[in-house]
Please model this.
Amino acid sequence: PPRYPRYTRAEVAQHRSPSERVWVTYGTEVFDVTDFVELHPGGPDRILLAAGGALEPFWALYAVHGQPHVLELLRDYKVGELSPEEAAPPPADTGDPFAGDPPRHPALRVNSWKPFNAEPPPELLTRSFLTPNELFFTRNHLPVPSVEPGSYRLRVEGPGGRSLSLSLAELRQRFPKHEVTATLQCAGNRRSEMSRVRPVKGLAWDIGAISTARWGGARLRDVLLAAGVGDNTGDDTGDDNEWHVCFEGLDADASGTPYGASIPLKRALSAEAEVLLAYEMNGQELPRDHGFPVRVLVPGVVGARSVKWLRSVAVSAAESPSHWQQKDYKGFCPSVDWDSVDFGAAPAIQELPVQSAITEPRPGAAVPAGELTVKGYAWSGGGREVVRVSGDGGWAGGVGELMGWGIGEIGGGKWGNEWGMGEMGNEWGGGLGK
Ligand code: HEM
Ligand code: MTE
Model:
């Protein structure tokens, strides 16, 4: 007979804070680590991120735990084992359109499960300049499509009826691979703070709907040129109206309408803007949540235009007719509300304005007297460089008390290169840190 009681994962999940006890699992074993929380060398907050669930995904991020003495220490806190049936994955619910969504990292703060929308906790966001793929914020409007890479085709429609159909292998082989370090931000980032001023409709994002990755793929410019688009395309219309490049995803709603968005053709053709048809994210193939096998990546522009699970690219005299281009992702002045809004009257958001936030310490946190490390990020939008970061925002009473943080020049990049977030002193270009 087993020496330890058996628990289900749901039972473990009920123990997520010191007041309800802090339980975690490792393998098939269950531990009550409440008494270790305050002793944890990595701090009590970090250990609480894993409370109620498995340690493995967190320890994969913090390799310091891969030492025998850590497991020995854990053994002292064992209180049970997982029930044998917990080893098998739960049966798929076939009636649910989201049943095929991929597994997600438990550290993500979920704003909505179906569709999946989630952000990294602030203290994990600024742990590294590049956001690990499994912590990168996710903004889905629809179920994640399942794409068979061998039969994937990308349709590219140029002007005058010329078109291309590219397999994944062709996209990789026919066009040089270009790499860009770029930050993606959702237009709704920090909406929960706005809602404290006045209620706003939409997902209640905290400060984490922004992440940075090194993206690899074909330049959209190269693919468009191969489809017969010329640098003068759109110039012969005799007026000043811009031409556009419209994208469609493989994710579609119940009526079969796909996610779609567009960017001006000028940006798509600009070598400097570095717009990619990306198939790599931080050196790995794109994860399913981030657009496997191919997504658009438009550096410096609102995330909504970086269409995932890309199915088609089309050059057009008009913007994308998609709901998300026409009736969403537009900015209005404070006097406009949902009764008076006229979506046709405002331009679709492309570049976003400057953004910054402090990730550590969190608002209201008690901090020890003396020297304090403050972390955060800054991003200038549109590919402009961050010029300075000032520390006079009232935190802890002013610049003088914030060690190493103040006004300073930060070297910047153009467009997507070399900006993102992290700690001051490394690759920089956009961000503040210690
Ligand atoms: C460090 C144990 C959960 C983040 C450590 C160390 C131990 C430990 C013994 C020191 C290792 C060494 O330096 O040799 C544990 C146990 C956990 C747990 C028993 C769960 C029951 C977590 C979680 C996270 C985390 C969930 C992150 C989300 C860290 C970090 C350090 C650390 C960042 C390094 C601290 C530093 O050196 O500054 N942990 N840990 N730990 N742990 Fe954990
Ligand atoms: N592309 C498709 N096909 N479907 C989507 O729902 N969401 C968009 C954009 N591309 C979306 C999409 C929005 S609003 C944002 S902010 C980014 O993807 C988020 O990209 P990420 O989930 O990789 O962070």
